[in-house]
Amino acid sequence: MSQAADFSTVTVGASRRVVFGDHLPLALIAGPCALESRAQGLEIAEALAALAERLSIGVVFKASFDKANRSSGSSGRGLGLAAALPIFAEIEERFGLPILTDVHETTQCAPVAEVADILQIPAFLCRQTDLLAAAARTGRVVNVKKGQFLAPWDMRHAIDKLRAEGAAGALVTERGTSFGYNALVSDMRALPILAETTGVPVIFDATHSVQQPGGLGAASGGERRFVPVLARAAAAVGVAGLFIETHPDPDSAVSDGPNMIALRDLPALVEELLPFDRLAKELSA
Predict the structure, then answer these.
(1) Closest C-alpha among 4, 69, 59, 25 to residue 201
(2) Which of 42, 203, 274, 284 could form a cystine bridge with 173, CB 3.0-4.6 A?
(3) What was the pLDDT predicted at 255?
(4) Which residues 6+ apart lie within 8 Å of 177 measured at CB?
(5) Residue 180 DSSP code
(6) C-alpha 212: how far from chain center
């Protein structure tokens, strides 16, 4: 595929198609940080499908089968690849939601691509050439999280690697930049810069952006109360999608509880964000 491949619009899913484009209505990537059980996955997916139907918004179900990047070796990691993939397949079959999940190793890409619509490259691995290439060669869309250590304009190199390997499409996600110890800061200038320099739809991760890496000593902390603040700011700038992790009881979650939104609070937040998105795109039309 040519380096000039047009990734400005990305479509995923079958029965519930989701279209990402910086000029298109806002789409949502949502779900738990880690898939903890089949029951949890189905509960969240059912709620997200209802939200998609009620608000006429594209929704992708997100969950990690393994949280490989942990503060401590004793931290919870999720169900693992073999147990999670059948649950992902069931969620898409029952609720029609496209699936996004992380890959951490090249050998995971092919089996994950049999089920997932979007393969996600974690932020700390965004420069791993072999992983990017393996994900691209699956024929699935690839979402690359911007490393906390990178300038937004440097992400064009990751997207160029995907293009060179013939990826079906790409997304790039802003999730904050390291700011001293145990802190991240979100620079809203990064959103248009990412769009201009990569040429792919831009996603803003509102929940990981309030994370405090290692802030609890053996685990990461977070400031959940600022998720709506940053989400409104990103929607007002204008992005293709928002990434919001959610859980029925975030304080009992095995991973990233302090920065996840309670499932019961998600519909009101998304409904609040849609007018910001509409106005931003009307003004830029």
Answers:
(1) 25
(2) 203
(3) 86
(4) 148, 149, 150, 184, 185, 186, 187, 190
(5) S
(6) 18
Q: Look up residue 209 and give its two tokens.
A: 């952006």
Spatial contact of 140 and 150, defined as CB atoms under 8 Å apart: no
- Contact in structure between 71 and 214 (CB atoms under 8 Å): yes
58-116: pLDDT as tens digits: 999 999 999 776 555 555 678 999 999 999 999 999 999 999 999 999 999 999 999 99
Whole-prediction pTM = 0.94
Residues in the chain, pLDDT under 50: 1-3, 217-218
57's tokens:
């918004």
Residue 100, CA atoms < 13 Å, CB-side half-sphere: 28
Q: Which residue is it, tokens 């911007």?
A: 146
Amino acid at 59: V
Cα distances (Å, whole numbers) of residue 140 to 81, 85, 127, 189, 225: 18, 16, 19, 29, 34
The answer to whether the CB of 66 falls within 8 A of the CB of 78 is: yes
DSSP single-letter state for residue 280: H
CB 70 within 8 A of CB 274: no
Record the tokens describing residue 119, joined without a space.
Answer: 């393969």
Buried-exposed string 255-267: b where 16+ CB fall within 10 A, e elsewhere: bbbbbbbebeebe
State how far the Cα of 281 lies from the Cα of 26, in Å rounded to an integer. 10
Which residues lie below 8 Å from residue 191, measured CB to CB, with a gap of 6+? 174, 202, 204, 234, 237, 238, 239
User: For the stretch 123-154, what's the b/e string if a residue is b when 16 or more beta carbons lie within 10 angstroms of its beta carbon?
Assistant: bebbbbeebbbbbbbbebbbbbbbbbebebee
